[in-house]
Design goal:
The protein is of the alpha+beta class. It is about 40% helix and about 20% strand. It has one domain: Beta-lactamase (3-Layer(aba) Sandwich), CATH 3.40.710. The protein has twelve helices and eleven strands.
């Protein structure tokens, strides 16, 4: 396992200036946060988990902070770091080509699959990292995770870094069908997504609902809000990677990602910077599996804090679920003092 280093945020500010420390200690009006989060959760019609962590004085507040929530694509942020650790360990190179076959496409969102031509193409590891962490590409994520040794390699990296509240256990091709009661796909299976979606739609609704309720309680592929902000803090401090250029690469990818514009980002003031990773699951039978967002906020006044918002099992529509994220962000900023 790679050697971890701990550097102050100031040490990496040259590579990532938005990570510069806050000029004054941040604190939260915790009574207000605890009071007002109740209404946000009620309006979200689901189980809401939130954690806020000031990066200067480590002041922490959370709501359901130690409860487990399904991550969905949030896992692709630690996956990208695990891949870079493999590069630093000499197991991979950033320019190393990885051949992907058409028969290896995963389910759901994949810009790689949409742009694919022919039966096989090679992609450098650097591009797979950017696709997975920056564009939430499921095919790129599954292939990259396979290259580093599978989901357990990501969980092992997190545990070695002191994060025990995040668990990565399955590939997308395994995990996504199981959420609703279908068997996951193995690497020898060629996924016919239209046929899969037809099978999913044809399932008995009672079976789908029962499977979803079980998935909402499944500790696999889950995270706690408090572990999530600790993970973000470690990235901001440069703890995960030895090479500053690798930390800067992750910072740039997560800062430039365009996903979730109506979630946390929508609740931040103009001029704030937000490096983050979203996650979202399907809605079936009126119940959404997960709508998530975690990241690092740098406010115009220089204050920096990590934030994690998880929403599971919501019966609200997509607009209302994302509005709950924005409401949490607005509350977090206004509760700073």
């Amino acid at each position: 396992m790679p050697r971890f280093i701990t550097t102050a945020i100031l040490a990496c500010a040259a590579a990532a200036p938005w990570l510069a420390p806050a000029p004054a200690a941040a604190d939260w009006d915790k009574a207000r946060l605890s009071r007002e989060i109740v209404a946000i959760e009620r309006d979200a019609n689901g189980r809401l988990g939130v954690a806020l962590l000031d990066l200067k004085d480590r002041s922490l507040w959370s709501h359901r902070g130690s409860e487990r929530f399904p991550m969905q694509s949030v896992f692709k942020w630690p996956l990208a770091i695990a891949a870079l650790q493999a590069v630093e360990a000499g197991k991979l190179r950033l320019d190393q080509p990885v051949t992907i076959k058409r028969s290896e496409f995963s389910l759901y969102h994949s810009p790689l699959a949409k742009a694919f031509k022919g039966e096989a193409n090679a992609y450098p590891v650097r591009e797979l990292i950017a696709l997975a962490a920056g564009e939430s590409d499921n095919t790129a994520a599954d292939i990259l995770m396979r290259e580093i040794g599978g989901p357990r390699a990501v969980t092992a990296m997190l545990k070695a870094g002191g994060i025990t509240g995040i668990s990565v256990d399955r590939y997308e091709r395994q995990f996504q069908p199981e959420v609703f009661g279908l068997a996951g796909f193995g690497w020898s299976d060629v996924i016919d997504e239209p046929a899969y979606r037809a099978r999913l739609s044809a399932l008995d609704p009672a079976r789908r609902k029962a499977a979803l309720q079980a998935a909402l309680k499944d500790p696999r592929d889950s995270a706690t809000p408090e572990a999530s902000v600790a993970f973000v803090e470690a990235q901001a401090k440069g703890n995960w990677l030895r090479e500053p250029a690798h930390s800067a690469l992750i910072d740039r990818i997560t800062l430039e990602t365009k996903s979730g514009p109506d979630r946390i980002r929508a609740g931040l003031p103009q001029g704030a910077r937000f490096a983050h990773k979203t996650g979202a699951g399907l809605t079936m039978d009126g119940i959404n599996h997960a709508t998530n967002d975690i990241g690092l906020v740098t406010l115009p006044n220089g204050r920096v804090f990590a934030i994690a918002v998880y929403l599971a099992g919501s019966t609200a529509d997509a607009k209302a679920r994302e509005a709950a994220h924005a409401a949490v962000a607005r509350l977090a900023v206004s509760a700073l003092r």
